[in-house]
Amino acid sequence: MTCVLVCFPGAPRPCEEAIRKELALDAALGRRVSELYSSAQEPPSLNTVFRTLASEDIPDLPPGGGLYCKVAVIAEAYSRLCQASGGRWQKPNSTWECKTGNLM
Q: Tens digits of per-residue pLDDT, 63-73?
């Protein structure tokens, strides 16, 4: 699939308030992923984290896509936590999980 973006000099610019809201939402999602990760007995799978977030009422999600527009933000936060805990990514039975332990 190809996407062509045509920009004109007089095109509207992104609103500063919208940019601030987007950054605040990304930070809030990162904090919530961290809370879910640290509160569990063992590291939850990324799917579990996503399902938990999907069941919560999160304000300022993008219209039309909601939480699914933020999959990359959630996965990045999860990945950082997994790496910080010395874990590694595994994909057993199509569920992404972070397994802690030796990386070798």
A: 888 999 999 99
